[in-house]
Amino acid sequence: MRTVRVGLLGCGIVGGGVVELLKQHRADFEARLGATIEIAKVAVRKEDKERITTIDPALLTTDVNEVVQMEGLDVLVEVMGGLHPAYECIKAALERGVSVVTANKMLLAERGPELLEIARAKSADLAFEAAVGGGIPVIRVFRDSLASDHVEKLAGIVNGTCNFVLTRMRDDGASFAEALADAQARGYAEADPTLDVDGHDAAHKLVVLAMLAFGAEVDHAHVPTEGIRGLEPIDHAFAARFGYAIKHLAIGRDRGDEIELRVHPALVRRETPLANVSGVLNAVALEGRALGPLLLSGRGAGAFPTAVSVVADILDVAQGRLSGHQGSLVRGIRLAKRPLASMDSVRTRYYLRFPVRDEPGVLSTLTGKLGERGVSIEQMVQDGHSDDGKPVQVVLTTHEAVEKNIREALAAIESQSFSLGKTQVLRIEQP
Ligand code: NDP
Ligand code: HSE
Question: What CATH number is given to the structural domain containing 327?
Answer without folding.
Answer: 3.40.50.720
